[in-house]
Amino acid sequence: MIPLDTLLQQAKAAFACEVLVMAGDIPAMRLGADWQRLAHPRCTPADVEALVRTLLPPEKNMNLWELLADQRELEFEHASSSVGTVHCNVHFQRGSLVLLICRADDFAKSGRAGQSRPASIPAASSAKA
Length: 129
Fold this sequence. Notes:
The protein has a six-stranded antiparallel β-sheet with strand order 3-2-1-6-5-4. It starts with a helix and ends in a 19-residue tail after the last helix. The protein has a single domain, classed as Beta-Lactamase (2-Layer Sandwich), CATH 3.30.450.90. The chain is of the alpha+beta class. Residues about 110-129 have low confidence and may be disordered. It has helices spanning about 5-15, 45-55, 60-70, 105-110, and strands spanning about 20, 30, 35, 75-80, 85-95, 95-105.
């Protein structure tokens, strides 16, 4: 599993405004209008679930996890000591979890509340797993 801080720090260093993590794919970050794959292996469903669980507040983890399972989507903010506050959208797509992380200031400026899913990301078929 990719450590959360490593993922967030790489995105911050590249001035990425969003990071996308989904099962069966290589994590990607959005730089302007383009998506770029990170130098990480493909994520398993267990990787994505573990990453999501690290983002959920420990005292509310079970309640939020149950809410996610019931509603199939969850939006929340996470305070990171390394990069500040990030906005998180977790949802199920084709039966697996998808995590979209956006810097909170970029999310607020975009006016995209409720529309945080990316339209498309280049295929990772040429990238090594």
